Amino acid sequence: EDDSFVSTPAPVDKLLGGLLAPGFDEESCLSRYQSALYRKASPHLPSRYLLARLRKYEAQHKKCGPGTDPYKKAIEQFKSNHSMGPMECNYVVWTPYNGLGNRMLTIASTFLYALLNNRILLIHAPSDLDDLFCEPFSKTSWVLPSDFPIIDRLSSFDIHTPQSYANMLAKKVIDKHSNGSLPAYVYLHLTHDYSELDKLFFCEDDQLFLKKFPWLVLKSDNYFIPALFLVPEYEEELRRLFPSRETVSHHLGRYLFHPTNAVWGMITRYYEAYLAKAEEKMGIQIRIFPFAHISSENLLAQILNCSRNENLLPEISVEGSSTTKAVRSKSVLVASLYTGYADKIRDMYYEHAATTGEIISVFQPSHEEKQHTEKQAHNQKALAEIYLLSFSDVLVTSSWSTFGYMAQGLGGVKPYILAFPEDGKAPNPPCRRAMSMEPCFHSPPTYDCKARKNVDKGALGRHVRHCEDVSRGLKLF
Ligand code: GDP
Question: What is the DSSP code (8-state) at residue 273?
C-alpha cells in the first residue's frame, strides 16, 4: 500500500522558534511548553539576534538576581542613599498600576528597557499578582524580595513623589551636567498623567544620564515601547532585535507570560469543553469605559454590524429555514465584565439558521460585573480570558483597551477594532481592521529632544503611526 500521501503532522515547536529556553521543570509550569499545542504555529519567527540577547539576559539575571552577591552589593549601595555610578549589576524595578492588561504591557515594556540597558528586571508583586505568572527566567526569580528597602512605599508613588525624575530635576537634586553626588535611585513616573519633565525620559541625553543609577523604579500604564524606537541610541539595537517591528509585543508576550498551573487549568478546561472542536474560532472582547458611554442595544448592534460588514459572522435566514447538515462550526468566545451580549448573539443563531449553514456556538467564560484588580481570583480569570481570546483566528476588540491589546499580541492577530462611540452611538464604519497587532502607546511624548520643540511624531512616518483607536497615540507598524 502506498502511504506516501499520509502526511505526518509537523512536530509541535514547544520552544516557539527558540524564544523559550529548554531545561525548565515542565510540571511546575505546564503552560510554558504546552501553549504551543493550543495555538497555530506563529508565522513570525523571532530574530536570531533576539534569541541570543534573551539567552544573555537570562544568564545575567541568574548572576544578578535576588540573593546573589552582586544583588547584595547593590542593595548595600541603595541603603547608603547614594549612587556611585553603574555597578556590576543594575536594576529596574517594575511596580503595578491599573488592570492586568496594563500591567502586562508595562512589564513587557520594562523588560525591553532592561534588555536595552543591561539592567535586571524585578517586579514588585503584591498579593493580587499571586499565582498568575510563572517565573520567566530559569533558576532565579524576577520577584522583588520583600525586604527591598522601600517596598512599602512603592504603591504610593505618583507624580508628586520627590524622588521622581521630574521632581529631582526641578528641585535640582540631580543635575545632568555635573558630576555631583547622586541619590540612591530614580523613580520614573511614566503614567498617563506624567509631566513634560517626566517625559524627558525619552530623550537620549537623559537616557545616558540615567545609566549612572544602579536602581530605577518604574511605574506606568502605557505600552511605551514605540517611543523607545524613537530614541536614537536604541534605534539600531531595536532594529536588530525586531527586524519586523510589528512583532514586538507578540514575541515579548509569549516569552514572558506563562500562566501558572492554576490559571492554565482554567484555560485548558474551558478550551477543551467549548473551543477545541470548532473549525474556526472568533473572539469578541467587550470593554466599556465610563468616558465612552454607549447603550447595550447600540453596542450589540455595532458588534453585529461590524461582524456582518467584515464577513466575520454569517447573516441569519429570515425564513427560518432548517439546515440539515452543518457545513462548518464556528465558536464565538465573548469576554466581557457584563452579561447580555453573548446571550443575545447565541439566541440569534438558535432562533434562526445562518445563511451559510454554519453552526455558531457562543460562550462567555465569566461576567465579573466590576473590575476588581485588588482580588487575585478575579485577576486569574482576567488572565485566563486574555489567553483564551488569544487562541482566536479572528478577533474583535474594543477601542482603548489594553486587555484586548494583550490578547491580540499574544495571538499574533490583527484585530477588528470597534470604533469609539460618538454621542452614545457607534460611528460608521462600526469597526476597522488594525494595521498591526501591536498595542497603542496612549500618551506618548511629543517633545523632539534634538529640535527642542513639540512635534507630531506620528506624522514623521518613522517606525510609528497614530493608532486607529487613540488618535494621539502611537503604535509600531
Ligand atoms: P483596560 O482597562 O481595558 O485597558 O484593561 P485592564 O486589563 O488593564 O483593566 C481592566 C480589568 O477589568 C481587567 O484586568 C479585569 O480585571 C477586568 N476586566 C475587563 N474586561 C474583562 C473581561 O472581559 N473579562 C474579565 N474576566 N475581566 C475583565
Answer: I
What residue spans define the domains of the chain?
40-256, 261-476
**If you average pLDDT over every residue of the chain, what do you get?**
95
Per-residue pLDDT reduced to its tens digit, 309-331: 999 999 998 775 665 566 889 99
- pLDDT at residue number 1: 43
For ligand 1, the distance from its centroid to the CA atom of residue 59, given in whole angstroms, is 34
% of the chain residues with pLDDT over 70:
96
Choosing from 129, 287, 374, 417 the residue with most ligand 1 atoms within 8 A of its CB, the one to mutate for a pocket test is 287
The DSSP result for 286-327, as a single string, is E---TTS---HHHHHHHHHHHHHHTTSSPPBPTT-PPPSS-S
Cα–Cα distances in angstroms (integers) from residue 177 to residues 173, 180, 452, in the given order? 12, 9, 17
Q: What angle do CA 248, 217, 237 make, to 5 degrees?
A: 35
Task: Please tell me the distance from the alpha carbon of residue 120 to that of residue 237, in angstroms, as a whole number.
Answer: 18
Which of 285, 299, 277 shows the shortest CA–CA distance to 385? 285
Would the ipTM clear 0.85, i.e. be above it?
yes
**In this structure, what are the phi and psi dihedrals at residue 438, rounded to the nearest 5 degrees?**
-75, 150
**C-beta separation of 383 from 259 below 8 A:** yes
pTM value > 0.90: yes
CA of 369 to the centre of ligand 1 (A): 10
Which atom of ligand 1 is nearest the CA belonging to 102? Answer: 8
Write down the pLDDT at residue 5: 56
Residues 6+ apart with CB under 8 A from 201: 165, 188, 190, 207, 210
Q: Could you give phi then psi for residue 456, rounded to 5 degrees? A: -95, 100
The answer for 215, left when phi > 0, alpha when psi is -120 to 50, beta otherwise, is beta
What architecture is domain 261-476?
3-Layer(aba) Sandwich (3.40)
Rg, Å, the chain Cα set: 24
What's the 371 CA to ligand 1 centre distance in angstroms? 6
* H or E element, residue 60: helix 48-64
The predicted model gives 64-75 an average pLDDT of: 98
Ligand 1 atom at minimal distance to the Cα of residue 373: 16
Residue whose C-alpha cell is 539600531: 236
pLDDT tens, position by position, 255-277: 999 999 999 999 999 999 999 99
Nearest residue to 410 via CA among 241, 257, 224, 245: 257
pLDDT tens-digit profile of 134-150?
999 999 999 999 999 99
Q: Match 499574533 to its residue by C-alpha cell.
A: 412
| CB-defined site of ligand 1, < 6 Å | 98-102, 287, 335-337, 366, 368, 371, 373, 378, 381-382, 385, 401-403
